[in-house]
Design brief:
The protein is α+β, with helices and mostly antiparallel strands and about 270 residues long. The chain has nine helices and 13 strands. The protein folds into three domains: about 100 residues, Rossmann fold, CATH 3.40.50; about 55 residues, no CATH class; about 70 residues, 2-Layer Sandwich (D-amino Acid Aminotransferase, Chain A, domain 1). Helix 1 crosses helix 9. The protein is globular, with a radius of gyration of 19 Å.
């Protein structure tokens, strides 16, 4: 049975992206694969797919993707989960409600509110729509700029004491792998990080954080402070750099997951029709 898989992207894949290896594996497995950049309108072929794979879509594109739900097309990650992960304020609410440890934080609509909330405190300021390290500012509370360095609204998190090493936990379904990266990075080696096999407590925390947002493909950022591990960010369909043995291993795991999802979706559709 040939399955049709449509990748819907918010931006062109960057250098070192896993997507070329992933789509090549899907093609080799016999899948029909399409890749489209999406802004306000969905391509027709996405509405004919067995599985739509969403990555990096803007709020406008996510609204357009509502047609996928209306047509009963299986999405990975789901549109709702992708939107929840994209909005850091919403994600924080979902995580806290699920009992996931997160830093103490306050919402701020504008930059003056950020400056008031951060006064005299060591904080991490985040845009609620930031991703891939963009829209993040670390401050001791005294060195915040007068003018906003990036658009809001914002989250103002207490900066926790830890060793400066972030555990980047990558999930494909139930499978979890990790990469340790130093923040802020001081060179190429820090940016690449060091792969590690996460202990079971961190793996379970990553699975719980992804499940709280409804994500199948996820990146969960964890720091370990005096009170134990804390989730500081969750992303939908991350880059998987360095995880699962590198591009070859990660793309194979992703391809298997997507093929299984597309095959199950096709079978479910056939059963409904019959």
């Amino acid at each position: 049975m040939t399955v049709r898989i449509a990748f819907l992207l918010g931006r062109e894949p960057g250098e070192g992206s896993i997507l070329p290896a992933l789509t090549a594996r899907l093609h080799a497995a016999g899948a029909q694969v399409s890749v489209d950049l999406v802004d306000a309108d969905l391509p027709t072929r996405a509405l004919q797919a067995d599985l739509a794979v969403l990555r990096g879509l803007s709020p406008t594109a996510l609204e357009a993707a509502a047609r996928l739900d209306a047509e009963g097309i299986r999405c990975c990650n789901s549109r709702a989960a992708t939107a929840a992960a994209r909005d850091k304020a919403s994600a924080a609410v979902f995580l806290a409600a699920a009992g996931i440890p997160v830093p103490p934080m306050r919402a701020a609509d504008d930059w003056p509110a950020v400056r008031r909330a951060a006064a005299g405190r060591a904080v991490v300021v985040k845009s609620t729509s930031g991703s891939r390290g963009r829209g993040v500012l670390h401050s001791d509370g005294r060195d915040l700029p007068e003018d906003a360095p990036f658009p809001g609204p914002y989250l103002v998190e207490d900066r926790l004491d830890y060793d400066g090493s972030d555990a980047k936990l990558y999930l494909v379904g139930e499978a979890v792998d990790g990469v340790r990266r130093v923040w802020p990075p001081r060179g190429l080696e820090d940016k690449l990080g060091t792969p590690f096999a996460p202990p079971e407590d961190l793996s379970e925390l990553a699975r719980a954080a992804a499940a709280a947002l409804g994500l199948e493909l996820a990146g969960v950022d964890v720091i370990v402070g005096a009170s134990g591990p804390v989730v500081v960010d969750v992303n939908a369909f991350p880059g998987y750099k360095g995880a699962f043995g590198g591009v070859g291993g990660a793309s194979a795991l992703l391809a298997d997951h997507l093929l299984a999802a597309a095959t199950a979706a096709t079978a479910a559709t056939a059963q409904r029709v019959s």
